[in-house]
Amino acid sequence: MSSQKTKPFTDKDVKNKVLTGNCVELMRRIESESVDCIFADPPYNLQLGGDLHRPNNSKVDAVDNDWDQFDSLKAYDQFTTQWLSAARDCLKPDGSIWVIGSYHNIFRLGYILQDLGFWILNDVIWRKSNPMPNFRGRRFTNAHETMIWASKSEKSKYYFNYDSMKALNEDLQMRSDWYLPLCTGGERIKGDDGKKAHPTQKPEALLSRVIQASTRKGEVIMDPFFGTGTTGAVAKKLGREFIGLEQDETYAKVAKTRIDAIDPLKDILVDVQPKREKPRIPFGSLIEQGLLKPGAILTDSKKKHSVTVHADGSVMAQNRIDDVRGSIHKVGAAVQGAPSCNGWTYWHYEDKGQRLPIDHLREQVRSQAAQQ
Ligand SMILES: C[S@@+](CC[C@H](N)C(=O)[O-])C[C@H]1O[C@@H](n2cnc3c(N)ncnc32)[C@H](O)[C@@H]1O
Predict the structure, then answer these.
(1) What per-residue confidence (pLDDT) applies to 1?
(2) What distance in Å separates the CA atoms of residue 205 and residue 214, rounded to the nearest whole number?
(3) pTM of the model
(4) How confident is the model at residue 136 (pLDDT cuts 50, 70, 90)?
């Protein structure tokens, strides 16, 4: 569904800016298919029935703001349909969206997302390491929030940085349950009165994972419910561009001040390319480019097996009766009697008395290609 754009914004109007106003109207003025990713933390529609007190009678600082009030579930659904339609229009065909919510609204969000044509990729549980207790003791402690991650459509070639997520999880695939603390301590922004500047400021760790998982460096992430600008702060730190939309002037001001104070991390710390996205370099191009000569000897790291490099990029195992010849991977597997082998990390060459995996030479070819 394409919304009509009145007075469209230019790139300069929106990139790395916090715009104040109703996000639906603002998104209708943002160029169609210009945004790589969206993170949305919309009103929860908490429907609180009166004040909540702790056992010591102190009042719980719950979310009772006007922006979280809707007359009915129908009104909430209408609002959700409006903002999600406008957001979908801004999203590139291969873009993805994250929406976060609690049991009050996440099921409605998921239903409407699917009806609008988004394609759900995961529901990620943010398990809070320090949740607020259930003071009345009549239900389970509500210790998580849910994020739905969806691509624009079933056909979208959405981005997922599998390798960075795996690295974050100590080399195990990142799971869909994330154990992270609430935003507290020094990270929690306070007003001049010492009170929380915003009732639902999200932790930067959560956004850091979202942004690293689903955007590349330099890409644009839009947040239609910007609040204190957590998305913008983390995006700037990680070398991404952001678009922040927030209807409340006070929150928008807090967000701008917060983001202005952020120093982006150095390029080298954030520009992690997933392995699969790196250009494919055949082993033969190391020989063509003179980094290895035909006749060169490669060995495994312990010098147990060795091969001779041939001019056509094949290698031949030495000291064997069966003349095993083929790709670095095939021969690596054969000499070990293994079903498969990554020849790039298995085979080593000698450089100034040091044995290094031939993957080093592949990286040299890649960086030369990138400079051309
Ligand atoms: C749940 S909070 C987001 C908090 C934010 N993620 C953070 O870390 O600070 C939702 C925000 O959406 C804003 N909001 C609600 N309805 C809006 C609308 N129609 N347009 C723009 N902003 C809206 C509220 O003022 C509130 O700051």
Answers:
(1) 45
(2) 14
(3) 0.77
(4) confident
Nearest Cα residue to atom 27 of ligand 1: 227
User: Ligand 1 pocket: which of 38, 67, 196 to mutate (most atoms <8 Å of CB)?
Assistant: 67
Pair 40, 223: CB distance under 8 Å: yes
Stronger pLDDT, 172 or 259, i.e. the higher one: 259
Residue 108 has pLDDT above 50, yes or no: yes
Per CATH, the number for 11-49+60-276 is 3.40.50.150
User: Could you tell me where in the chain the CATH 3.40.50.150 domains are found?
Assistant: 11-49+60-276
